[in-house]
Amino acid sequence: MPSNDEAASDHLAKEVKRLSGENKKLREVLSVMYDNYNTLRKQYINNCSTSGTSRKRKAEKITSRVNSELSDEDSSCNKSRVLVHHHHIQRSDHTTLLVKDGYEWRKYGQKITRDNPYPRAYFKCSFAPTCPVKKKVQRSVDDKSIIVATYEGEHNHSKVVLEAGEGSSTTTIGHSHKQPEFNKLLIDQMASFLTRDPKFKAALAAALREKTTLTHK
DNA sequence: CGTTTTTGACCGGCGC
DNA sequence: GCGCCGGTCAAAAACG
Ligand SMILES: [Zn+2]
């Protein structure tokens, strides 16, 4: 039966393609992890060997960064808030600081920092109006082909677009960009968010009261 | 027209 | 108090 063999080989070819795509992604992740480790090691060595240069600020920053990076798993930065810090490093092209990961971001600031000639950009997740996630993106001092993004917070909406690979699976869930259904979902989310807020209830009651008295007069 | 980027103003914490 | 510094706001500009 040649058709069976053909089907089997076709299936195998598809599987190989999928696996190679997955492998590529894994390689990328590994490279990112390696870069992360390398920069961290550099900073650690630098911190250990710079006992002569009096830079208490630098030392403090490095220690804090080391702590946040190393104890990310165990005692995930009990700094002051419930906010969850998460660091990630991403390869970049040469001149862009606008990074496309699976979310939509609105840039709301950019500052120059003391110990880094490259500016730092501040983004907020604009996918849902109620999403509190922010991220800071700035090029690394040591390796200029690397930009480091620190995420903060947790998304409260479903992640939508996942991957832009050429593999067989382009797992885009439904909505692309401009659907009334999506807007409806957003409005629903906002409404539930507002009605859950007692302050909003009080304000609404006050407004209604004022309006009724006004019309009653 | 709505949304996003730009960019200086602004604010609050911290060390002095 | 003052200045520094990281973070945010918001008005204008830019984009589609
Ligand atoms: Zn989000």
UniProtKB/TrEMBL annotation:
MF annotations from Gene Ontology: DNA-binding transcription factor activity; sequence-specific DNA binding
Record's keyword annotation contains Transmembrane helix: no
Domain WRKY: 94-160
Renumbered residue ranges of the record's region Disordered: 48-67
Keyword match Magnesium: no
Keywords attached to this entry: DNA-binding, Nucleus, Transcription, Transcription regulation
Entries under Pfam families matching the protein: WRKY
Subcellular localization(s) per the UniProt record: Nucleus
GO cellular component labels: nucleus
SMART domains in UniProt: WRKY
PANTHER family in UniProt: WRKY DOMAIN-CONTAINING PROTEIN, WRKY TRANSCRIPTION FACTOR 36-RELATED
Protein name: WRKYd transcription factor
Organism of origin: Solanum tuberosum (Potato)
Record lineage: Eukaryota, Viridiplantae, Streptophyta, Embryophyta, Tracheophyta
